[in-house]
Amino acid sequence: MTAPHDLIVFGEDWGRHPSSTQHLIARLPQDWQVCWVNSIGLRRPRLSLRDLKRLATKVMALMRSSNHDGGQVPRPDHIHVHAPMAVPWPASQAAQSLNRRLLARQCRRWLHEDGLHRPIFWASLPTGVVALGTLGERAVVYYCGDDFSSLAGVDHAPVMAMEQQLVDRADLIIAASEHLARRFPQNKTLYLPHGVDFELFATPAARPDDLPESGPIAGFYGSIADWVDVSMLADAAKERPNWHFVLIGSVETDVSELEGLPNLHFLGKRPHHDLPGYVQHFHASLLPFRDTDQIRHCNPLKLREYLAAGSPIVSTRFPAMEPYAHLLTVIEPCSRLAPALDTARADSARNAIRRDAVRNEGWDNRADEIRAALERL
């Protein structure tokens, strides 16, 4: 039997949102001990309300015991979560030098406390590279789930320089989309598309009380950010006043075009485990993306979650949706959404076919591929 591996993972804040890294790492064998290090930031904070709230969350995490989580993804006992003290300023060489010393000291202590030895170094965020070479790691893995060169809210130049260091040092690169995979050396790159919590989204769920009671519903969940085509949604809401447009998630872009529309509903954030109750009762689940570099390189988790729920889906065209295009109502970016809603509403007969399309794409299957790749290291 192959000996278990220890991992130190530099990822986003555990529990803040259910990322692909969290889904994968949570499903590794229970005897693989994991030291999880929360994010040290991809840009210098600014004096905005959002950043001040984020800073407050970080401070609270430091003040609590290390193994905290927000309940979005269950944290198995073999995963030990730690909130590092570091300076979130990728563009500053002085900050990176300080972070290297701070992280090395903190991580060595956590590895000792958690009982880990010669871990595999796993970075899902390029900023983790500052600790590389200080922890006695046996191998280096870079998990790339986003195009950091175009990701909103990132100090692009310094972060991309950090990514290049990781690519050069990595023994294994895992890319979540084919477009991302083509950027890296093919001899050490594994293309691994996102999975889905199939049982969660396919199991019938009760209709939430805060959904509109009458009329068809077009719904979206996730960050309402720059990559969402707000104008497309506004035009559709005006063209289809009998439809309700439900948006679930934090608002991170200008939505003034949507404000005041009587059939537009902002519900705010909802826990991940509550989302099936919403999407299963949408008459059309939306992927209304703008045509951006970030979207062209992305592989959104919600696409497979929509499919697992069996919901009719309206999506703008982008590369990661193409394998499922025959199951979606596809429109070109910047085109009219309203006619596609009518088409999707009439497509409920294929709900079971949509579910079956991702039945074997669960996170357990993806984690098995990760386990095998790590064992080969």
From TrEMBL:
The organism's place on the tree of life at top rank: Bacteria
A Pfam family: Glyco_trans_1_4
Protein name (database record): Teichuronic acid biosynthesis glycosyltransferase TuaH
Lineage of the species this protein comes from: Bacteria, Pseudomonadati, Pseudomonadota, Alphaproteobacteria, Hyphomicrobiales
